[in-house]
Write a structure and sequence with these properties.
CATH class of one domain: Alpha Beta
CATH topology of one domain: Nucleotidyltransferase, domain 5
Protein name: Piwi domain-containing protein
Oligomer: single chain
Radius of gyration: 20 Å
CATH architecture of one domain: 2-Layer Sandwich
Pfam families: Piwi
Number of helices: 7
Structural class: alpha+beta
Number of strands: 11
Organism: Rotaria sordida
Distance between the termini: 20 Å
InterPro entries: Piwi (IPR003165), RNaseH-like_sf (IPR012337), RNaseH_sf (IPR036397)
GO molecular function: nucleic acid binding
Strand content: 15-25%
Amino acid sequence: SLARALTSSSTKDDIFMFFGADVTHTTCSRDKPSIAAVIGSVDSTSTQYASRVGEQYPARGKISLEIIKDLYQMSTDLLKLFAQRNGCFPNKIVFYRDGVDDGHFQKVLDHEIRALQNACKALYMNNPLPKITFIIVKKRHNTRFFVRDPNTGNFNNVQPGTIVDTDIVHPQGFDFYLNSHAALQGTSRPILYHVLYDDIGFSSDEIQSLTYYLCHSDVRCTKAVSIPAPVHYAHLAAYQSRDADSYDNDRRSTMGGDFDDDDDLIQNMGSITLQEVETRLIQLDPSIQDTM
């Protein structure tokens, strides 16, 4: 239950909304675009979510972009849906962002947080703006934790709920490792969380507990999963949409031709800007547009 985290004495009047976002890259080509998925909770218990998915086409000869260009439109749609379901907008937003390397942290701060803030300004009008916490979720790293049995000398996985936030984390940053799941086989991999922006003012224990609780609300599993539910849903939405033939058949001829020559592609790779990226939101059937 999320009640302990969302209805404490300091937050009983707060209305929380949780976002999850991920970008999946198939290959650097115009035929198979990058898929950006943004997921948002739509109910007061933060267990029902809706998704918005879009395609991002890189410029010819350029690498794929990790930033979600259409985040403003996607977050606007999800905030409107939240208001329709609950009769009000949230005053606290917690945004979990997956798949961002260390070198892109500043770009995410510059664009995605600003896009989310601008979406809130456009919708809230003269009302107080919500407070935002933005967290990067990193699964791909080489850190592992073990517990040594003093009797046998064997090394075992750490227990679910183990937090490591001292000694091996960034000396100035707000980051922590959380092992929220029990490995059925093999070595469990903890998840590294970087809190890039915290307007809500969570303490370390509060954001760690909240993240751990969200790992229990995934509908695909009766136990705790390794990452918070909105991040897992975003990954699933992006992965499933990657195989959908949703773009026009003639897009190859209208958007720059074929990319069979890999050598030419590699030679012309360079930095890419948001202006060079063409995007298109994927329109789903209305019956499933606002469900997962």
